[in-house]
## 1
Amino acid sequence: PKLVTAATIGLLSLGLAACGSGGGEGGGHKTVFKLAVSQTEEHPQYQAGIELGKRLEEVTDGRYSVQVFGNETLGTSTEVIQNVSDGTVAFMWCGGANVESLNEDFVVYNLPFVFDSMEAQLAVLNDEELNHELFTSLEESKSITVLSGVHAGQRSMYNSKRPIRTPADLQGLKIRVQQSDSQVRMLEMLGGVPSPMSFGEVYSALQTGVLDGAENNEPSFDSMKHDEVAKYYSYTRHLMIPDFLLMSTTVLDDMNEADRQALLDLIPEISAKASADFVPYVEESIENAEELGVQFNDDVDTEAFKELVAPMVDEYMSANALRTDMYTAIKQANEENPAA
Ligand code: GCU
């Protein structure tokens, strides 16, 4: 992918990016990039990070490798975004909603009931030309390059009180959402009480009853142990938000051209693996949750939920030309890749 823009070439020629150990512990000739992921070691994104390290070491004759840090050990997403921006962390897997705080146009990926299938979502995410402006939009202001976006499941509602079937069931429930305007607004329109907080804080908030519930994909529900506390998982399937692989633009520019290209060439394969491996991970997570006594219900009036947020989707999607273009592409991808 042609991700290095005129702006970053400008930086290079000024020599601003030519110092430092490349976001990792530079030992001898080897640079170890840090990759941060908020998920556990079993998560496909953690595993894809390990794979990226192996492959990168091969293709750069050992000049570069990757150390993966899971479980938010390097900090919350908001904190790590800052580290990627200042170049002390080379890579992170970042939830789409968090990227919205850097450029609100990322909202096109974060709106409810917009993607009909995983295939449609991936068709849009993998369209390099379509995403070029968005994916390079943070380079100048934040020194962050978006390398790719991957499938990260469908998000549904879960809580400790009752199954959700209609919007009335959600009324008054205090639900954690991701920290972005679109997510807060979505939950308000669906009738719940939104409580934005970072991923790692949700478990104890559920446990202490500060929250009645949250909304997430099955793997996060299970791996973060939310299923120990919230026993009702209701298939609202209201969101399909991707995760993005972010890289420090400074660190990327700091590599010699051949190594940088070798790294960029690995990204499609690594990203495809993260997306594909998510599917069986969902099944395992459902089994684990069921063993803990979780009640999954699929008898949800999704049309009713969809109607409530339709005005909001239209408003966000029509805010500027980039968004209307992306929305057109999304609708076309849905037509070509309908729900199973
Ligand atoms: C999912 C998603 C993460 C996101 C998390 C959250 O796990 O993959 O990127 O951070 O949800 O709800 O915060």
## 2
Amino acid sequence: MRPIQKSNKLADVCYDIRGPVLEKARQMEEDGHKIIKLNIGNLAAFGFDAPDEIVQDMIRNMSNASGYTDSKGLFAPRKAVMHYTQQKNIAGVTIDDIYLGNGASELIVMSMNALLNSGDEVLVPAPDYPLWTAAVSLSGGKPVHYVCDEGAGWLPDIDDIKKKINSNTRAIVVINPNNPTGALYPVELLKEIVEVARQHQLIVFADEIYDKVLYDGATHTSLASLADDVLFITMNGLSKNYRSCGYRAGWMVVSGEKRHAKDYIEGLNMLASMRLCANVPGQFAIQTALGGYQSIDELVGPNGRLTRQRDLAHRMLTEIPGVTCVKPKAALYMFPKLDARMYPIADDQQFAYELLAEERVLIVQGTGFNCTDTGHFRVVFLPNTDDLTESIGRIARFLDGYRRR
Ligand code: PLP
């Protein structure tokens, strides 16, 4: 029989967070090994449960959730999202500008599919949350990576962004707060990004899914609050702020310069219709979460569990010889750097495999986030302090052996 091959569309599509190293970890678990997982931002798996009120309301609403809804979603949760945009000072958003999705992930892919033609370029941060790069490629576009500068706390390099704009550039993606670096961008920098978008008529895709996971009393500014003459597509959802990844509840807001985007919006509507609607229990969860009092503040406050785990992981990692790490100001991740003279890593996926095989600790290698050098990896600081202490101790032991090879 003729071999059945995947489509050419997938040739440049890559999503290593759930790639071959995870597959290896799965096999090891099946063989009875216990692995400490520092690889994925899945809060519930580490005992950060969804707020009770959201769970209870979902259960109560289940009997009303068996039918399709409007393609963009039910009115009440979209209204709740509209109020959220008002709290974030995003002007002029109507119910019609709001799309509910099966997580932000579905909407990210949809937003790129509706936009891109072959040859169109989209500026994507490096390192990035790799779904963005994958979604641009899958949609037939070309991801062009702009540098986020580690030396400047992983902030986007505006000069690099400007250098990479040409007549094919359609849009810029900004992930703030950032996965994988934990950076939170200052307002001045956000204004500079908006100015570049304005000058070059770029659409701004703002991924703000961690906008409440902020440490040290920091505040978050939505990019879309900074202008009304640029088109913004803002992504958000319940997965992180409300510890509800499994409910697959996300939203997308179109704002700013909408008048010139009628055709694109038609495309978005078409794709939203084709998938009929987002899962309805998840839609109800949005309504409860955004209308209620539950928050993540306790976990990210001065003595909150996430803050304590961040501090511990950062201190332990940076105590390892040859390891430096920008301390995260937000989100659930840090992105340490290994000194290339002490740890000459040619293939960081192999590095991740070896760490897994020798020490039973699962990380994601830096190149999985489109980071060009092979001396980084991402650590998720969701495990409790005992598991973090144990796993980073094992990383230190592994690196000690690596150095002596
Ligand atoms: N955007 C970023 C930056 C993320 O880190 C993630 C998930 O980890 C997503 C989007 C996807 O979120 P969702 O669960 O809403 O699909």
